[in-house]
Amino acid sequence: MKAIDRQQTGTAFLDPGAADWQDTDAPGFRIKPIFTDSRTGESTALMEITPGAYSPPHAHDQLEEIYVLDGDFHDDEYTYTKGQYCQRAIGAVHSAGSENGCTVLLVYRG
Q: 90 lies in a domain?
């Protein structure tokens, strides 16, 4: 499945449920890209983290937003559960993972 790029006019439709998960460089982390702005690099994706998977400390060059759809998501400070949201500043060093597994909506923007 190819992510939708920014629409100039009209409406775009995508069914992430019909797409396969894509592996990332981090073991236990998979994504389904939904939207990517080819000009700005802003993006939206579903991310699945398998139980017990944790990333090493890292940072992003864009603001990061995470909304938990199911399971438990952990960072260096908190544990987030279904329906909870967090926002991370540009350049904030953090780790991420899940004790029991989770699915989150992941947004990056300038």
A: yes
Q: What is the DSSP letter of 7?
A: P
Q: Is residue 9 part of a domain?
A: no
User: From CA 68, how far away is CA 21, in angstroms rounded?
Assistant: 17
Return the ∠ at Cα 69 (arms to 20 and 85), rounded to 5°: 130
pLDDT single digits (tens) 10-51 = 888 889 888 899 999 999 999 999 999 988 999 999 999 999
Domains: count for the chain = 1
Could you say which DSSP state residue 83 is in? T
Longest dimension (CA), the chain: 43
